[in-house]
Amino acid sequence: MSKFWSEAVKRTEPYVPGEQLDIPNLLKLNTNENPYPPSPNVVDAIKTELERKLHLYPSPGADQLREAIGAYYNLDTSNVFIGNGSDEVLAFSFMAFFESDQKIRFPAITYSFYPVYAKLFNVPYEEIQLNRDFSIPSEAFFQSEGGVIFPNPNAPTSLYMELDMIKDILDNNPDQVVIIDEAYADFAPGSAVSLINSYDNLLIVQTMSKSRSLAGLRVGFALGNPQLIQALTRIKDSFNSYTIDRLAIAGAVSAIKDNEYFKDTTDKIIKTREWVTAELKKRGFHVLPSSTNFLFVSHYNYDAETLYAKLKSQSILVRHFNKEAIKNYLRITIGTDENMQALLQTLDLIMAKEK
Ligand code: PMP
Known about the structure:
By secondary structure, this protein is an alpha/beta fold. It has 2 domains: 7-37 and 260-354, Alpha-Beta Complex (Aspartate Aminotransferase, domain 1); 40-258, Aspartate Aminotransferase, domain 2. Helices cover 38% and strands 14% of the residues. It has helices spanning 7-11, 40-53, 63-73, 85-97, 113-120, 163-171, 226-236, 246-257, 259-282, 304-313, 337-354; strands at 27-28, 80-83, 104-107, 125-128, 148-151, 178-181, 202-207, 220-224, 285-287, 294-299, 316-317, 319-320, 330-333. The strands form 4 sheets. Strands 2-8-7-6-5 form a 5-stranded mixed β-sheet, sandwiched between helices. Helix 2 packs antiparallel against helix 8 (246-257), helix 3 packs parallel to helix 8 (246-257) and helix 4 (85-97) packs across helix 7. It is globular. The chain binds 4'-deoxy-4'-aminopyridoxal-5'-phosphate. 4'-deoxy-4'-aminopyridoxal-5'-phosphate binds at residues 85-87, 111, 151, 155, 181, 183, 207, 209, 215, 220.
């Protein structure tokens, strides 16, 4: 604490991202990155841009990328906003749509950046308890005072909420913005994108960090009614004209356009997910039915934090959250089949020794 700190700095409790350890041969299953590299076209596009255009500022709105995403989703460019990672889009959304005298709602177990933004931007909030099976009780989000935000599928639970329930939440918050954070929707049975033209209070936030293998490039986006998009643009243009650099725009455009590669890698991850789920269940793990690129698991006989530490000592990093309700769970990112085979073998060794 320093006398020079503003009130905003004092009240902020920064988000702590998953560990990024620099250990050789580390198997990194802790931040839900994609185990496959991005489409080869992405690298080509970045190289071309790098050689020709680096002396010029990028498009302030990343317009080429807005067009590509609009075309991909059959939406107008005016429905698309681009941000420096979806975290930035989420931060701008808190500023654009939530007030300091109206409580917003989000689940008690969810993406831990939401309370951080709420404190930073002075937005009061209510945390809604999940059902016993970790599903989100949709009615608890009806008639919110200041708005709603949650991921679908939720993180870290990996559970998907059906679109009918999303519609109910939207119908019961006609004067508030409902933000659906679809960071993992490409691994799920559906997306609320089809609802954009029917609901002026729906903002969808997506990322290119997971299904598009571009966590290192920092590109996220929002989809919604043009008036919501304008609000986000007004915030961005009052903060930084050029949030997305030329290399990121070029790479992200190529990633969106290479649908075949995207489908291929996403299908592979889903297939691996189903296989590892069955394998972990055979070993006595409770595995929540995942609609994401990660699993949320616990074991009746083995303490999650101990398993986390033992895996780490064998150079396998998974995520453990020190939060009472989920302290006996681990979140494990889906890697390649080989990665997951290594995880299973190591778990078998750890569990054999513990017996
Ligand atoms: N939302 C959720 C639910 C996430 O898990 C993440 C990844 N940590 C993000 C948003 C942010 O992703 P990014 O900033 O890489 O787009």
